[in-house]
Amino acid sequence: MNGFEKRAQLIKEKIMKTTLDMLRTSEPKRIRISDISKTAHVSQVTIYNYFGSKEALLREVFIHYVDKIIRDFEEYMNGNHSLKEKIEHIILLEKETYKELPPRLIKDLLIEDHELSRYIEDQYKEKSIPLMIRIIEEGKKSGEIADNVTVEGVLAFIQLFMNQYEALLEMAAQSGDLDKFMEDMVHMFFYGISGKP
After folding, report:
1. What CA–CA distance (Å, rounded) separates 3 from 32?
2. How far is it, in rounded angstroms, from Cα 59 to Cα 49?
3. In the 8-state DSSP scheme, what is residue 194?
4. How many Cα neighbours within 13 Å face the side chain of 57?
5. Which has the higher per-residue pLDDT, 96 or 132?
């Protein structure tokens, strides 16, 4: 990469970082190219030259964000962690993601951009699900997951949990102790309400 390409890459990264920072506090509809331009200290023309439109910029920022989450997820899952630690990581990953970007913002982005929605769905099917299946199968082989529990059953249980994650986070916030609430959820995920057998 020559000097011009490096400089161009740095400018593009600065625009994307500025946009991601703005997404943490503003709805996508309220963010304007002029605001991004002013905050990133680049011209509006530069932003249009790199991304073409605000929608394309938002899409690229979110894809970059999701790709990093997936890389980090794969790295953790391939690490030397127990099955319990890996499943706990899956459950608590949503909490960390929602701290970064509010759930309503993510929903808005996916509803408004079908291409982005398809990309996220493809990543989930092609990378996340196969990795989770492998982890569950390893857990069954090691005896950490009961023989009579199917891979499909564990995946369904995780999915049910994730589908209600926004509501769980609201309850956790109302409880006054988010971390303790989430620890309880993880404990019940593994051992039910009766405690560890």
Report:
1. 30
2. 15
3. S
4. 28
5. 132
Of 38, 47, 44, the closest CA to residue 13 belongs to 47
CA nearest to 145, candidates 87, 76, 74: 87
Extents of the domains making up the chain: 1-52, 54-191
Same topology, domains 1-52 and 54-191? Answer is no
**Cα gap 19→36, rounded to integer Å:** 6
Per-residue pLDDT, averaged over 48-77, amounts to: 91
Q: Looking at the whole model, is its pTM more than 0.70?
A: yes
Give, as one character, the DSSP assignment of residue 148: T
Whether residue 4 is predicted with pLDDT greater than 90 in this model: the reply is no
Distance CA 81, CA 83 (A): 7
For residues 91 and 159, what is the distance between their CA atoms, to the nearest angstrom? 10
> Residue 176: helix, strand or coil by DSSP?
coil
Quick check: 76 and 144 in contact, CB under 8 A? no
Is a pLDDT exceeding 80 seen at residue 2?
no
Mean pLDDT, rounded, for 32-55: 94
Conformation bin of residue 192: beta by default, left when phi > 0, alpha when psi is -120 to 50: left
Q: Which CATH number fits domain 54-191: 3.40.50, 1.10.357, 2.40.50, 1.10.10?
A: 1.10.357
